[in-house]
Amino acid sequence: MLDIKFIREDAETVKKALARRGADAAQIGSVVEADKKRRAIIQEVEGLKAENNRASSEIAKMKKEGRDASGAIAGMKAVTDKIKALDSELSSIEARVNETLLGLPNIPHGSVPDGADDKSNKLILEWGEKPSFSFKPLPHWEIGEKLDILDNDRAAKITGARFTVYKGAGALLERALINFMLDIQTREHGYTEVAPPVLVNRASMTGTGQLPKFEDDSFKLAEPDWFLSPTAEVQVTNMHREEIIPAAKLPIYYAAYTPCFRKEAGAHGKDTKGIIRMHQFNKVELVKFVLPETSFDELEKLLKNAEEILKRLNLHYRVMLLCAGDTGFASAKTYDIEAWQAGAEAYREVSSCSNFTDFQARRASIKYRGADNKPVFLHTLNGSGLATSRLLPAILEAYQTKDMEVIVPEVLRPYMGGIDRITKK
RNA sequence: GGAGAGAUGCCCGAGCGGUUUAAGGGGCACGCCUGGAAAGCGUGUGUGCUGAAAGGUACCGAGGGUUCGAAUCCCUCUCUCUCCGCCA
Fold this sequence. Notes:
The protein is an alpha+beta fold. It contains twelve helices and 15 strands. It has helices at about 5-10, 10-20, 25-65, 70-105, 140-145, 150-160, 170-190, 200-210, 230-240, 295-310, 360-365, 390-400, and strands spanning about 120-125, 190-195, 200, 225-230, 245, 250-260, 280-290, 315-320, 335-340, 345-355, 365-370, 375, 380-385, 405, 420.
């Protein structure tokens, strides 16, 4: 959420920034108007309330002294009615202002390039090399089927399209990846592991920015008013919702493994094979709560922490800086890490690392106590570290052999009972 | 799922329609005292909104209602605890 005070004082800057990402800047004018009205009503109604309070204690005193207060009481009725009317007008204006603010995206950082879509994203770095093969490498869905480790057909029987069953060495590999990633992030990069609920309430979804705009993208329970979390960002960021954290405790780093659930409503016919785009997938998420002045440095560190996983797995990848138009709703700056899928011959996003500045902190009311003891919104960041549904395909494709086996990357072997390859059973 | 109890400031805890602009205690901060400390004494100690400021206003789990006036009465909801049932 953007700060209404900032919008009020510098509407032009906000309009320009929103235009960069293709957001509707016309709402800025009307929200500034509504805010002006809001403040005028506050001044009026609070004056009446002050008068009301004075009269009330006067009445109390008269009653105590045994005098007749009926005249004073009768006089208060009109003031109270006026207060009620103004209060209800005020709350409808506040609701309108709030609704508009909740619908406005974050302002892209100055270092974010212009552009409308992913074609304008900027290549930041490439690491490693595409593996070369003496044969035609297969896409992961064919490998998964031949080795009998991924079974989308049976998942469809259980649930429907866009689910998979990990089987045998596939299930083991999935579990190994999760443990490997968590161990690196917690033991070497200083993150504290958390294992949160996967069902989340409306306030949490609003706090991180999934709601109100993107309700249709989420799986929602009929009862109660809960959602299947689309990313652990929601749970972990909202752990500190409505809290004031002592500055000395910052920065806070969390790593969480959770299943994630997405409707993929706009993706009909896209990525229908394999496990690239599932309704349910596993992800280790990294979340940071930091001092505002450090957040862009923290973003660079977060990116490095996520990259480390790919380096240890020796997988070729590139890092893209997203342009203004491709940057997510809540983010001020986002890097995507794209791993090379050797069989499908494409780069696929395995991680997205974002600095949300104070956008989520303001929605969720997460503050720290500054030097002058005043509560200040802190900055939140998060990044995948990483998503297994993208990582596991990259591994299968990069490590496949001519004899239809998959070599287990060395760093994963301790997590897989020491086996060095996945073979057909 | 059934029955009951509860939710008050950083913590404990009073409060049962009008000097509560929330008693009292503890903690914490600062000051006095001290060679230094403890004890003691004094002062202070929330958040939001509004306002240039002084100040004003709202908030006693959340949301409604009754009343001139609600922490206090009524309704709905959420959460916690105890017992019963069911259960990994």
